[in-house]
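Hey, I'm writing a tutorial for new members on how sequence and structure tokens pair up, and I'd like a real worked example in the thread rather than a made-up one. If someone can provide the structure for the chain below, I'll link this post from the tutorial.
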Amino acid sequence: MDTSYPREDEPPRKRGPPPAAPPPRDHLVWAIFNTLYMNFCCLGFVALAFAVKARDRKVSGDVEAARHFSSKARCYNALATAGSVVLPLLIVALVVTGVIHLSKLAQDSVGFFTYQLSGRDDEDH
């Protein structure tokens, strides 16, 4: 292959209007899953309401309002998901530490509540 001579490139393309921004996401499926999971403070239901509003505004052509409601739906979905993950982990951690503390307390108190019998009664004589 001979590359010693200059090659002609394609002619420059004409510039047109910039491509339109993609429509905003409505996060409806995420909100439905969060609603069905029944998370803390019904945040999934609030996210579902904003996701439906975002989809309605997107269908009607109001892109700015759709972006606004989509942003709110995403925030509530994130809060609902975080709450659904963090709260059970926190409860499990509290139960485990409580069980550990109670088992140590029970082991320490066994010696206090048991009556030890011995052959000598030095205290009575």
